[in-house]
Predict the structure.
Amino acid sequence: MRIRTATFAVVAFVAAFAGACSRVQAPSADATARPQSQVHGNLREVMRGILFSNSNVVFFAQGADPTTVPQDTDPSSAVNPIAGLYGGWEAIEDSGIALAEAANLLVIPGRTCANGKPVPVQNADWQRFVQGLRDAGMAAYKAGQSKDMDKVLDAAGTLTSACSDCHDVYREKTPERGGEAARCTAQ
């Protein structure tokens, strides 16, 4: 009789639990809405904080096979990312992904240049330059995965081209071309 009562209690509990679960409400439309991207830094800050340092990892790797760079005695505080805790080829992979993902930050509406002008996210050439950065980041990522120095050299060349293509139009403003006040203006 005890087993029968215990079995009945378990079945009753499972049935009650299943019934309660079936009455769980679906999330509201507000809860499933995609959060809006937010702008926290100007273009110069994003470039210096993310793109510059990650590009330099790829550029450094052109001249030093990551497997030959000795790891620091305390890799958690290494200044050289190739010699750090997530160093070697993994540093190149990580920097490649960071560059590709950072490309998304360059097309968020509302970001400004350091001079206060809006980043020209709607311009066709800007979109092309951002895609070039994204492609360069993925090339660096794949080079890191392959552990092939020739692919690192190719990725660094692709990255150099992506950066200079955009900088030639939007950043490199001599006094004759309006100086810093003219940045983020195509010329």
About this structure: Residues 124-146 form the longest helix (23 residues). The helical segments are 2-22, 29-32, 43-61, 89-105, 124-146, 149-171. Residues 75 and 84 are 4 Å apart (CA to CA).
